[in-house]
Amino acid sequence: MTVRPTLVLDFDGTLALGRGPLQAYVGALAAQLEDPARRDRVSSACLAAVAAFDAGTTSHRDAYDAVRTAALAEGVADDQLGRAYLASRELLGTPEAPVLAPDGLAAFLAEISLSATCVLATNAPEIGVDRALRSLGIAETLTARHHDLGKPSGLEPLVAGLLSHGPVLAVGDIWEFDLAPAHRLGADTALVGVRETPEARPTMRGASLSALFDPIRDWVSAQRLRTPA
């Protein structure tokens, strides 16, 4: 019997690229501030934090973490950040918060989904995700979608359940959140991005998801040749 492996795919920073959603987040945050001078100061601080993150000069987990840290330092409240995030997700996949796909993503997932089950696993809420996936041309290739997962700990039960049915490859851009829990359970992992992560021990890694298409194809082919336990 042929084994059917599973790819567990992260969303933001892995399948969905671009700074459109983040700019919408900063804009929604600034819109809550009444004083124009403070609005400009907070916006500038947040965008500067994103630029520093992109330049690799900070140790933030991701660009959202960079914005959050900068905003809190400017005296923005947690509830304001929460409202801004939800407002920005309402715009996800629209011209106000566009997302970009890694080169060749739609064709790759259409191909690989013939041999592997593709599952979305994200900490993001469901708001706007379907629209974003459709704008990327990949909505129909995902067999299941798991939102508000609560990674890293929330990833473990999902991967454990999938491993009981066959091999799993977790794919994401943050080792601690997207991959480490799967690695601890014995799943394979694919780390996306060029940021230094000394503690990471992925099965494969690439500067972009597109750079991992061939290694993932090889992994899927090798798993399908395995004899089921």
Could you provide a short overview of the structure?
InterPro entries: HAD-like_sf (IPR036412), HAD_sf (IPR023214). It comes from Brachybacterium saurashtrense. The chain has two domains: 137 residues, Rossmann fold (3-Layer(aba) Sandwich), CATH 3.40.50.1000; 71 residues.
Give me the CATH architecture of the largest domain, please: 3-Layer(aba) Sandwich
The averaged pLDDT comes out at: 94
CATH-assigned homologous superfamily of the largest domain: HAD superfamily/HAD-like
- What is the total tally of β strands? 6
Strand content: 5-15%
The strand line-up of the biggest sheet is 3-2-1-4-5-6
Distance between the termini: 11 Å
Protein name: HAD family hydrolase
Organism: Brachybacterium saurashtrense
InterPro entries: HAD-like_sf (IPR036412), HAD_sf (IPR023214)
Question: Can you tag this structure with a few keywords?
Answer:
HAD family hydrolase; 6 strands; alpha/beta; 6-stranded parallel β-sheet; 229 residues; single chain
Descriptive report:
This is HAD family hydrolase. InterPro entries: HAD-like_sf, HAD_sf. It comes from Brachybacterium saurashtrense. With 229 residues, the chain is an alpha/beta fold. It has 2 domains: 6-17 and 100-224, Rossmann fold; 20-90. Helix content is 45%, strand content 11%. The protein has 9 helices and 6 strands. It has helices at 20-31, 36-54, 63-73, 78-90, 105-112, 129-136, 155-163, 175-184, 213-224, and strands at 6-9, 117-121, 144-146, 168-172, 188-192, 204-206. The protein has a 6-stranded parallel sheet, with helices on both faces. Strand 4, helix 8 and strand 5 form a beta-alpha-beta unit. The longest helix has 19 residues, at 36-54. The model has no long low-confidence stretch (mean pLDDT 94).
